[in-house]
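Table S2 (text version). Query chain:
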Amino acid sequence: VDIAAEQPIIAQRQGRQILVEVKSFLGRSFISDFEDAVGQYIVYRDILLETDSSFDLYLAVAEGTYNSNFQRKLTQMIVRRNRVKLIVFDSQNQVIKQWID
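Corresponding C-alpha coordinate output:
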Protein backbone atom coordinates (compact mmCIF):
# COMPACT_ATOMS: atom_id res chain seq x y z
CA VAL A 1 0.00 0.00 0.00
CA ASP A 2 1.42 3.36 -1.04
CA ILE A 3 0.64 5.56 1.97
CA ALA A 4 2.45 8.50 0.42
CA ALA A 5 -0.17 8.84 -2.34
CA GLU A 6 -2.76 11.52 -1.59
CA GLN A 7 -5.93 9.52 -2.12
CA PRO A 8 -8.30 7.50 0.04
CA ILE A 9 -7.09 3.99 0.86
CA ILE A 10 -9.21 1.11 2.08
CA ALA A 11 -7.42 -1.29 4.41
CA GLN A 12 -7.94 -3.47 7.47
CA ARG A 13 -6.76 -3.01 11.04
CA GLN A 14 -7.41 -5.65 13.66
CA GLY A 15 -10.18 -7.13 11.55
CA ARG A 16 -11.95 -3.79 10.99
CA GLN A 17 -12.33 -2.00 7.69
CA ILE A 18 -10.66 1.41 7.67
CA LEU A 19 -10.71 4.26 5.21
CA VAL A 20 -7.54 6.35 5.24
CA GLU A 21 -7.35 9.84 3.78
CA VAL A 22 -3.67 10.66 3.13
CA LYS A 23 -2.65 14.32 3.18
CA SER A 24 0.73 15.78 2.25
CA PHE A 25 0.39 19.33 3.65
CA LEU A 26 2.77 20.66 0.98
CA GLY A 27 0.86 23.86 0.21
CA ARG A 28 2.03 27.35 1.02
CA SER A 29 0.20 27.42 4.33
CA PHE A 30 -0.07 24.55 6.80
CA ILE A 31 -3.17 26.16 8.35
CA SER A 32 -4.93 26.36 4.98
CA ASP A 33 -4.03 22.74 4.18
CA PHE A 34 -5.11 21.72 7.69
CA GLU A 35 -8.48 23.47 7.33
CA ASP A 36 -9.07 21.62 4.05
CA ALA A 37 -7.99 18.27 5.51
CA VAL A 38 -10.15 18.55 8.64
CA GLY A 39 -13.13 19.76 6.62
CA GLN A 40 -12.80 16.86 4.21
CA TYR A 41 -12.35 14.44 7.13
CA ILE A 42 -15.57 15.69 8.75
CA VAL A 43 -17.51 15.36 5.47
CA TYR A 44 -16.23 11.78 4.95
CA ARG A 45 -16.93 10.87 8.59
CA ASP A 46 -20.47 12.22 8.42
CA ILE A 47 -21.17 10.35 5.18
CA LEU A 48 -19.87 7.12 6.73
CA LEU A 49 -22.05 7.67 9.81
CA GLU A 50 -25.14 8.54 7.78
CA THR A 51 -24.78 5.45 5.60
CA ASP A 52 -24.16 3.18 8.59
CA SER A 53 -20.82 2.23 7.11
CA SER A 54 -18.60 -0.11 9.06
CA PHE A 55 -15.47 1.81 8.07
CA ASP A 56 -13.32 3.63 10.63
CA LEU A 57 -11.89 6.83 9.16
CA TYR A 58 -8.29 8.01 9.66
CA LEU A 59 -6.30 10.99 8.44
CA ALA A 60 -2.75 9.96 7.53
CA VAL A 61 0.09 12.47 7.85
CA ALA A 62 3.83 12.17 7.41
CA GLU A 63 5.88 11.94 10.59
CA GLY A 64 7.72 15.20 9.88
CA THR A 65 4.47 17.11 9.44
CA TYR A 66 3.04 15.54 12.57
CA ASN A 67 6.13 16.39 14.65
CA SER A 68 6.40 19.97 13.43
CA ASN A 69 2.79 21.07 12.95
CA PHE A 70 0.47 18.72 14.82
CA GLN A 71 2.14 19.57 18.13
CA ARG A 72 0.77 23.12 18.04
CA LYS A 73 -1.90 23.78 20.67
CA LEU A 74 -4.39 25.06 18.09
CA THR A 75 -3.91 22.00 15.88
CA GLN A 76 -4.23 19.62 18.84
CA MET A 77 -7.43 21.37 20.00
CA ILE A 78 -9.04 21.08 16.56
CA VAL A 79 -8.03 17.43 16.20
CA ARG A 80 -9.40 16.65 19.67
CA ARG A 81 -12.67 18.58 19.30
CA ASN A 82 -13.39 17.07 15.90
CA ARG A 83 -12.35 13.58 17.00
CA VAL A 84 -9.93 13.21 14.09
CA LYS A 85 -8.22 9.81 14.14
CA LEU A 86 -4.64 9.99 12.88
CA ILE A 87 -2.09 7.69 11.31
CA VAL A 88 1.48 9.00 11.47
CA PHE A 89 3.73 7.43 8.84
CA ASP A 90 7.36 7.46 7.74
CA SER A 91 7.06 8.64 4.13
CA GLN A 92 10.52 7.41 3.08
CA ASN A 93 10.16 3.86 4.38
CA GLN A 94 6.38 3.60 3.87
CA VAL A 95 5.90 2.46 7.48
CA ILE A 96 3.15 3.43 9.90
CA LYS A 97 4.76 4.84 13.04
CA GLN A 98 1.72 5.63 15.19
CA TRP A 99 -2.06 5.18 15.38
CA ILE A 100 -3.85 7.94 17.29
CA ASP A 101 -7.50 7.35 18.12
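Notes on Table S2: Strands lie at 8-13, 16-23, 56-62, 86-90, 95-100. Residues 9 and 20 are 5 Å apart (CA to CA).
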